[in-house]
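[stage:ingest] chain + small molecule (flavin-adenine dinucleotide)
[stage:ingest] validated
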Amino acid sequence: MERCMRADVVIIGGGIIGLACAYELVRRDVDVIVAERNARVGREASWASLGLLRQRVTSDDAYGRIAQYSADAYPDLAASVHEDSGIDPEYRRRGGLEVAVTDEKLASLGRFATFHGSRGLAVEWLEPRDIRACEPALSEACLGAILYADDAYVRPPRMLRALEAAIVARGGRVVKGFAASRIVRGRGVAVESEGDTLYARAVVIAAGAWSELLGRGSGLFLPVRPVRGQALMYDAPAEMLRRACGVEKTYVAQRDDGVLLVGSTREDVGFDSGTSAEGIADLKRRAAIACPALGEMAPARAWAGLRPAPARRFPYIGEVESNVWVATGHHRYGYMLAPGTARVVADGITADETPIPLDDFHPERDRARVEGDQSGS
Ligand SMILES: Cc1cc2nc3c(=O)[nH]c(=O)nc-3n(C[C@H](O)[C@H](O)[C@H](O)COP(=O)(O)OP(=O)(O)OC[C@H]3O[C@@H](n4cnc5c(N)ncnc54)[C@H](O)[C@@H]3O)c2cc1C
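[stage:predict] done
[stage:export] tokens:
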């Protein structure tokens, strides 16, 4: 059936970023449609995520500001979504550990502890005996750790379900099976897919790792590429870990229901979102280094997702052409940055000004780098 619908704002992509933007807009009484190509929202990178909210970005630049803005906004977002949907996204602020098992990492953690402490983060240095007291399941080979008191996490599938239900409860619409192929600009904006068209005053591209393809089809420069991340799930004994722990680039975190997550790999494999035997073996090895008991257990599940990676560190957020907004390229930190991203996008669309200047998040800032890379390859 051919669909032709109209809204104030159409958001392309129903991952954590698109849903968070939509929710922030419906909270301000904006008429929103989320257009998602899959039969269900939140089934790509956002589903694969561990949902850790590690607040480490303290730089004075726009990235540091949006990270802080997001961290400050999380409790309100989680509570509001819970209230509107009846689904608890399990936002928990239990603190997190960054742990060293090598001398090299120990030295770098020492520097981070000093730096992050001087930047106002709640940090505490832990000696090996303190680590064992804090998290007995961690390896005895741990040499030192930083305890970040404000680290938090959400449970991604719940957050996604809660956001979708909350958007609908506030009058927003979610259109599934709509694969946007082109954005046509005129007085307003038309978003086309095969035979279907959505009309709006403004559009937000939040299509994750696929944003570049959509941009290219619409004459927009949006250099996002997919970076695969694999993760494992263990049915571990309850309360094995109290906090999310990063052990030499491997994260282990246990949910309220006892399920223990281990992640993740970083691989340039194009749009292949499957798991691999090598990736799973690597994660199992790293899991056993972090928590030796996991070496005795078989993972219950493995999965993978494609992170949307920008050309450099900054995601792409802002109005790239009149009434065409982007919110993509959040790479490893989509959950961490979702509330701040949603607020600045909603501010920009509804009030024409944003609390954080968005110049540094403009994709054109990466054009020279991308074109230089292409001519050099
Ligand atoms: C293993 C793993 C662990 C991670 N752990 C963390 C973590 O602990 N903390 C953290 O902050 N981040 C983490 N991340 C990163 C985080 O998951 C991503 O940054 C985030 O999910 C990106 O969200 P998104 O909405 O931009 O993309 P996606 O979730 O991929 O959503 C994009 C959506 O757009 C849809 N779409 C694409 N093209 C079209 C089109 N043409 N028309 C309509 N719809 C379209 C897709 O179907 C998809 O639903 C992790 C990622 C992985 C893979």
